[in-house]
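User: I'm curious whether this sequence folds into something compact or stays loose and floppy. Could you predict its structure so I can see for myself?
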Amino acid sequence: MNPFKNIYLNRRFFLLLGVIILCFCFSFIIEKMFVISILLCFILFGFVILDLFGLFAKNELMRALRKTSKLLSLNDDNIIEIEIQNLSQTKWYIDIIDELPEQLQIRNFKIKTAIHGQENISNFYNIKPKVRGEYHFGAINIMVMSYLQLVKRRIRINANQMVPVYPSIIQMKKLELYTFSQISKAYGIKKMRRIGLSYEFEQIKNYVRGDDIRQINWKSSARNQQLMVNQFEDEKSQPIYNIIDKSRVMLMPFNGLSLMDYAINASLVISNVALKKQDKIGLITYSDMIGSAIRADRKHGQLNAILQTLYNQNERDFEANYEHLYYGITRIIKTRSLIFLYSNFESMYSLIRVLPILRNINKLHLLVVIFFQNEAIKNLSEMDATDLKEVYTQILAEQALNEKIAIANELNNIGIQTILTKPEDLNINTLNKYLEIKSRGLI
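Assistant: Here's the prediction. I'll summarize afterward.
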């Protein structure tokens, strides 16, 4: 390899060279400055040669290794580690330039640090993928400088690596922890009290305020001289389906992430929690036709099958066909199930067209329709209007927001459960609805 391709002049060199050029300019006024300028020029280039000799005295100066997890999580901060090993006895100043995947569109990545002789250091940075798929990392470039910092030597280390970005596994694990822990309320997860009874007896426990007084065990209370209540387990093995709309209404991006990807992340969260609660979980995707379908089950490997299916989903630039969806549901789902339908309705007209089909689905199953608030429109409705154009814009934005609320009210009035949510709150709101339905024994 040609070593001259790896030599770069540093900013300090050009600053010093600029000073020398000014000295040459002043030599037209002060004659003695000419000799001083030539002397400074020789000194500068002498230090450059000395710097180059130190940088290229050893053929292998640095080693580098990139460490990532096997899978990256969509829309989460994923930690990447770069480990640098100095093979010389000299302290170096280095700039680490990692060749990041093109999906991130980051062109100014650089880590500045220093490394002592024979030292190993680890540098960490975060990336936040907004698109599912294969992310290809390139080489690790280390720009090495001595104490003089006049010249840089580029060391290019081949570290080509492909890491897939899957639906958010990090959020899935966090919400699983919060759901089954005592700190869940701090994160917005509500544990609802059960309305009604299940059939599986679990234990007799001490009465606490809020327990159903109808479950007091009077015989046990008399023996223990304090109130005791019967506790029942939640009913298990209930079929639950996440149905995701892949049509063009889900292409709309919020904070760089499409509505479909928000729905995919929420589906993974619900799938994981449902399996932990011993329920059966399934998945259906649709647009102008039925896409992928996994029948509800809680067998070993079900979550991984759902994860792989969600990873491979792509939006389709077509209108959603709800007739095909209804036919697919009747063909795939054989027993009464809880259905989370992720879609988006921007107008009452778009709802009215599909309302008869949603009614029919709700007759067969417990349907929860999930659609999204438009944060951009909400921000427009809250701005301070300063002229007539902005007043009209604000009024139209308020009308659009009110229409979303009217859609939710219309669905609720005909007995269909509804979640109208901000995209970023989708995981929590959907999980709360699942826990509420489980606690109330609606399915």
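Summary: The longest strand covers residues 78-86. The chain is about 35% helix and 25% strand.
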